Structures are given as C-alpha cells and as structure tokens.
Amino acid sequence: MNQNAPLSDQVAVITGAGRGIGAAIATRLATLGARAVLCGRDRAALERTAAAIQSSGYQSAVMECDLTDRRSVESLAERVERTFHRIDILVNNAGIRGPQGPLQELPPDAWDNILNTNLRGVYYMIRGFAPLMVRARTGHIINISSLAGKNPIPNGAAYSASKWGLNGLSYSLAEELRGHNIRVSVICPGSVHTEFNPHTGKTPEKMLQPTDVAHAVALLVTQAPQSYVSEILIRPTQKP
Length: 240
Known about the structure:
The protein is an alpha/beta fold. The protein has helices at about 20-30, 45-55, 70-85, 110-135, 155-175, 210-220, and strands at about 10-15, 35-40, 60-65, 90, 140-145, 180-190, 230-235.
C-alpha cells in the first residue's frame, strides 16, 4: 500500500458494493488508499468486486448485510468496529427503483420495499455508524440519491418520494453533525448505465457511467478539511 495515498489507513464502508455504482465507488476509494468494506446481500457479487480490487493490489473486505434489517446493520457496525476500530467514510449507495406505474396501482408491499431500502436502510446505517464518527470527531457520510429527488417523476412516485426523503435527511443530518467535524453530502445523478440497469431506449455511450458517480465521491472525500460540498448534481453532457 502507498502510505502517501490520500485515504491511506482510512476505512470506507460502501453499501450495494457488489455491482454497478457501488462496485465503482468501492474500487475508486480503494485505489485512493482506503480499506474498502463491501456490504450487501449478494455475497458472490461482493466477492467478485473484492477480487477485482485485490488483484489490482488494493485492500477490501466483504461483510454481508441486509440494510433493511436493523439487527443485521447493528451486527455490521459491531463487526467493523471490532475489526478496524474506526470508520472514516460511509457511502449509502444501495437502493432499488421498484415497479413503474401509477401510484394508485402500486402494491403496498412494493411501496414498503422501496422506502425500506432507499430511506429506512440509510437511517439504520447512520444510526449504526455515526456514533463511531462522533467519538472520533471525524468522518464523511455520502448518500447516493438521484435527480428523481429533485424533479417530479411520473409513474415513479414511490422511488421519487424515497429520494426526496433521502435528500431532506442528508441536509438535516449535515447540520446535526457539523459540530462533530463530520461532513455529510448527497450526490444526485441522473440515469446511470449499468449492466443491471440498462435503461432501454437510451444510448449507453451518452448516459452517465458508474465511474462518474465514483469520481464525485472521490472529490468529496479528498476535499480540504475547512470546507465540504453538501450536494452534487450529475447530468450527462448530451441527452441520451
């Protein structure tokens, strides 16, 4: 490891790190020197991300977690503290879009699944990890939201509601934690092309890529300590 790397010896926990945006963020943070803790429910996917990171000479660890389960998140936080004795960066990336269609036709269990994953799960993660940061008087929490949390999205009201809620949570949390020297930021990308979320009908080459979001995360966590960027909106240069 390069001890002169910007994030040398720091510990970064990334949810949804098995694929897509989460895998790209984990890889980027690892290349900056962080020990990337890859979290999610699909262990096989997490292991693939870890193998790619380690084959490039960087550090990572796999820790399974269901962020919709409070006890699972509490167990994760305890394991991270026991293993590393610290957390410097928390990236709440995991999220789902759910079925599309008029809100009045959305099944209640689909509403619950979207809100529990995209919003309640972030609350669980912050509840589990923020105390470690408060004790250390340092840390960075980054919530991956969406432009759907800024703009009305017909036939995606539940997803949009979860992201508007996540934005509001982020803004309020930032004010709560500033006095503890903890920076909270939210990133709102437009549609991102991944192999698991290809957005049929759009031109992949013109769409945002997972590495674009990872780049924004890298900018945030390497920001000079006297300031922080509270929000980043990411749009494609050309409409796809």
